[in-house]
Amino acid sequence: MPQFYLIPKKLARKAPALAAVAQWLEAKAFACIFWFMRWLSLEQASRLSAFAFGLVGPYGDKASKARANLAIAFPDSTEEWRDRTTRQIFRYLGISAVELIKLEDIWNQRHQRLEWDISPGAAEVIERKGAAVFVCAHVGAWQLTNLVALEYGLTISTIYAPESNDTLRDMMLQLRESFGVKLISKDAGVRPLMKELAAGHSIGMAMDTRLDSGKLLPYFGRDALTNTTAARLALRSKAALLPIRAERLPGMRFRVSVYDPITSEQPEASIDDQAAALTVQINRYFEDWIREYPEQWICLKRRWPKAHKL
Questions:
Q1: Which range marks the domain in which residue 194 is found?
Q2: pLDDT, tens digit (0-9, with 9 covering 90-100), for 66-124
Q3: Distance between CA atoms of residues 68 and 70, nearest Å
Q4: Is residue 96 part of a domain?
Q5: Residues 35, 115: one domain?
Q6: 89 in a structural domain
Q7: What one-character-per-residue DSSP string does 256-310 give?
Q8: How many domains does the chain have?
């Protein structure tokens, strides 16, 4: 999540005192929002949050990054379509926030809210409780993919990015604990992830964002700095590499799909080459999901190198 919501990052760096006040206000504001949302139904909270985020979000600095990403991913799109889709993206960002706040309600109402679509290859891995690396993108109700752990009794560790605001970090961590998974900060590195896989457990990663130390790989026909960690971990631990997504259905219902394992087409190649090739396959899944629901793609950070500007 962004470091600051109420003031631009550049201004926060120049005015530390102002940044401290902004973070305090942010924490208080989010605490009030969380408290209020808990009293509403999932439907009511989603409508309200979508309206609020859609009203304010398109005028912030994140909106320009969303428009730029849409322009590259959808090169034949019009400016009007990109503006309209950006507004929808912020509406769905608000809905995503509610899905996290109301996660316990969703799980408690799972027989009415959730359906599962598990491919045969993934079902085999899940049934034998084999080690797996679940990979998803920030598309649709991506946070609900974590519920696969509760549904099938799996031990999964999920990588998350802790907020810089201490108070907000504690609130978000408490909400994420409803996932039923072990939470590992992205700052912890790969060692705890390898440890989990070596123990026969699984890990989950949302890996569609830019990684500055990543490898340039094709994404919507353009090279983008891409995180290959998921593929490397799967190769080194011989864990299954499973794409997973959560779609929003009418009536505030959700479908969680787990796809067949992605396997290396060149097992004799080096780990580096195999990891790159596997990650390209993962990117193709993400591209298909984004093309299906571009308005639900949370793409608020620059995804491609700066050279790729309109």
A1: 111-296
A2: 999 999 999 999 999 999 999 999 999 999 989 988 998 999 999 999 999 999 999 99
A3: 5
A4: no
A5: no
A6: no
A7: EEEPPPP--S-TTS-HHHHHHHHHHHHHHHHHHHHHH-GGGB---S--S-TT---
A8: 2
